[in-house]
Design goal:
Elements: E1 6-7, E2 10-11, H1 30-58, E3 88-93, E4 98-105, E5 125-128, E6 138-143, E7 166-171, E8 175-188, H2 194-198, E9 204-216, E10 221-237
Length: 238
């Protein structure tokens, strides 16, 4: 029957118990048979309802950026503040309830950007270590999964951010870099503007990236990407 079905990008595995205690038993006789058959029918109906409820709960769709959230790619004012180089250790986004330590990832052997392990690190974001550290002049990149085999992942609600929301990145030197969102956009992967997203800025820029749009079960990938544009507004010591 092909691969296991997926709901909203999540793999749904269906299996039946094989333990001997669940082996078919001889059918009961007489009234007991009718009584047990009725109970079995109720159980099947109840089980079906529970399965449907679970399916509905699992079938969550990540928020898509609103057209009004497109905003600006960069800050509206001139060059802002900047920080010295210091590797990031965690990220906090109060508006969408994100608080995650930051992995440090580079590139895969084929040159593509490495992503957190879907089985062990779906709830953790990662800083792309070939970008500048957050707060330096240039473009810093943080990525994370939108969902996993178990449910929503660290950046599930990234598309719900709006211009004006804050992103706080704690650095190894004790500084918390505060970035302000300037725009949130969704791009079809076939039209992904890599030169715009990864281009080195002349201010302290931050990009947050995750998957978005529809899930293509044939390829096992989402068809779009959600990108949050932000710029440094202030550093604050812990």
């Amino acid at each position: 029957m092909g691969g296991s079905p997926r709901i909203a990008g999540l793999r749904v595995v269906m299996s039946w118990p094989t333990d001997s205690q669940f082996a078919p038993q001889p059918p009961p006789r007489g009234r007991a048979r009718v009584r047990l058959a009725g109970l079995a029918g109720v159980s099947l109906v109840f089980g079906g309802l529970v399965a449907m409820l679970v399916a509905v709960l699992v079938q969550q769709h990540a928020p898509a950026p609103a057209p009004s959230a497109a905003g600006h790619i960069g800050p509206t004012s001139a060059k802002g503040p900047a920080l010295r180089q210091s590797v990031p250790v965690s990220v906090t986004i109060p508006a969408i309830g994100v608080q995650s330590r930051l992995l440090h990832l580079g590139r895969n052997q084929d040159g593509t950007m490495a992503v957190p392990n879907l089985n062990t690190s779906a709830q953790e974001a990662a800083w792309y270590e070939y970008s500048v550290t957050p707060g330096q002049i240039g473009t810093s990149v943080i990525e994370g999964h939108v969902d996993s085999y178990q449910g929503p992942a660290v950046f599930f609600r990234l598309g719900a951010l709006r211009p004006g929301n804050d992103i706080k990145v704690t650095l190894a030197d004790g500084i918390t870099a505060v970035f302000r969102v300037t725009g949130v956009r969704e791009y079809a992967k076939a039209e992904y503007p890599a030169n715009t997203i990864y281009a080195q800025a002349n201010y302290a820029a931050l990009r947050l990236i995750t998957c978005g749009g529809d899930f293509d079960s044939a390829t096992g990938h989402y068809l779009s990407s959600v990108v949050v544009y932000a710029s440094l507004v202030s550093p604050a010591r812990r």
